[in-house]
Amino acid sequence: MNPTLTTRLANLRARMAQTNTDLVVLGPSSHMLYMADLSPHGDERPVLLMVSPTFAGFLMPALNVDSARQHTDLPFFPWADADGPDAALKDLLAATGVTRTAPSIVLDETMRTDFALLVLDALPGARRRFTQDTVGYLRSRKDDAEYDALKKSAVLNDAAMAAGFAALRPGITEVEVATVIRDFYKANGATTEFCSVCFGPNGAFPHHHTGDTRLMDRDAVLIDTGGRIHGYPSDMTRVGYFGSKPQGFDEIHAILDRAVTAAIAAAKPGVPASAVDKAARDVITEAGYGPNFLHRTGHGLGIDVHETPYITATSNTVLEEGMVFSIEPGIYLQGRFGLRLEEIVIIRNGTAEILSDMPRTAISGG
User: Of the candidates 139, 168, 194, which is a domain's last residue?
Assistant: First the structure.
């Protein structure tokens, strides 16, 4: 087995011991990709990875076995369409050695409900929870290889963002700017994870759907974009304007930059995630725009664009070395414009290190 996967499996078993977990069950998901470097075709045919303290193996449709074997040497318990998965599932459960009447099991919260019910029906006395304190816990603490991949993805995203702002010209549409960014990712070996381009009042919608709005003088411009390369995504928001600045732009931009700076300073090992949210939110509230900050301060980033830890006012997650997350306060002024500044940081060597190399200064177009 790949040494990284061997380490991850050992780490998972250590967490299982610490959390009194008898069995972890994962479906086709980023959790399975993390644990086994396998992302099988997801359809109605049950695919499961089961990990116990003494065994790990797959329930796998027979027609996928040969392809999946290229990625893992863990044992398969195959089943054919003509037979159904019940017998193979029974054999796999027996192999795990889980014999307690009421085992403590962890289910992948992202897998299909019918897959989860197969497991629960086979273990009727099971006490079940989701992956937060096992696989999710491990995934939130990035290793050196993950740091390198995320850093490379962030630096490429800097250049994609610059290409988007460089494309601004009178009358260009949001969709056309997004196409420039998507083409940049493709030309540099990456895929587009998402791309939101917002002109003028559209920036006041935190999740604006990029459309046919045309760029005009005095428009604020907000671009939130991310690509994926080497298996890991990027995520960053930058703002600017076209022609003349809209009234109030500099004030809001300065407040947000102070909020980002305060949140980064607060993000240290041993600090609850809620304290990072508070640091950003206090700056905005004290400036008189508290009601215009409409969302949490951040989310974790890893294999998924959104994963633990979540930087919210109520999160009691304690930050630790290796955690990667966004800091992205925003102020949204309906009918005028909205601004958001976003950095991805990693808790590294006791502080929050920014992955991007791109300044947060406003970008002038036109």
Answer: 139
How many angstroms separate the CA atoms of 19 and 218, rounded?
A: 56
- What residues contact residue 70 under an 8 Å CB cut-off, 6+ apart? none
Residue 217 contacts residue 341 (beta carbons within 8 Å): no
What span, in angstroms and rounded, lies between the C-alpha atoms of 168 and 364?
Answer: 9
The reply to whether 193 and 135 lie within a common domain is no
From residue 320, how far is each of 70, 151, 170, 351, 352 by CA, in Å? 35, 18, 46, 10, 10
Where would I find the H helices in the chain?
Answer: 3-18, 30-36, 65-68, 86-96, 113-122, 135-139, 144-166, 174-187, 249-266, 273-286
Residue pLDDT, tens place only, 12-66: 999 999 999 999 999 999 999 999 999 887 789 999 999 999 999 999 999 999 8
Domain containing residue 77:
3-139
Give mean pLDDT, residues 236-263. Answer: 97
As a whole number of Å, the CA-based R_g of the chain is 23
pLDDT at 366 over 70: no
**CA-CA distance, 342 to 59, in Å (whole number)?**
41
Number of other residues whose CB lies within 10 A of the CB of residue 274: 17
How many Å apart are CA 35 and CA 106, to the nearest integer? 14
pLDDT tens column, 59-94: 999 999 988 888 899 999 999 999 999 999 999 999
